[in-house]
Amino acid sequence: MTALPLYKRPWRKLSPRQKLLREKSLAVIGELRNSKTKSLPQAANDKGITVKNVIKHTNGFKKVNGKPVVKKWDRIQRIMRINTNGQEKSVTLVDSRTASVVRRYHNAVKQFLNTGDKSKLSKFRNKKVKDSKGKLHQFETNPDEIIRINQRIEEPEFYEVYNTK
What was the pLDDT predicted at 155? Predict the structure, then answer.
């Protein structure tokens, strides 16, 4: 029996090191999809991971004229946080297209929290994303709930390094 390739393994079956490498690899792929000028070695180096590990953990490339070119989308599981039903939840998503929708939602939430402009949230009203188990999660678009969720998120404590007194 052969083991599943790393990019096909479910998130829950990865070791902590493999999860970290997958996250870094997905960050490299995301950067390459957004930047037309960066090369795979540059992006991998920026994220502190080898090109070999990026390829092993994602299978997110195709060969074009002998060079690796990032695919438009992938079916690699990743964990992301979403606001749903008045709370923040971690969900396992199955592809990059769904992850892009969640990222756009988070950008809309961030813009709302920074400016108070609710119009960006309206695009996500009654929109849902499906997790790896097929369960649908509706985006929270109620401004009051979003503010409550944001207030419940703990901020990292600031440790005073220098005594300024």
Answer: 65
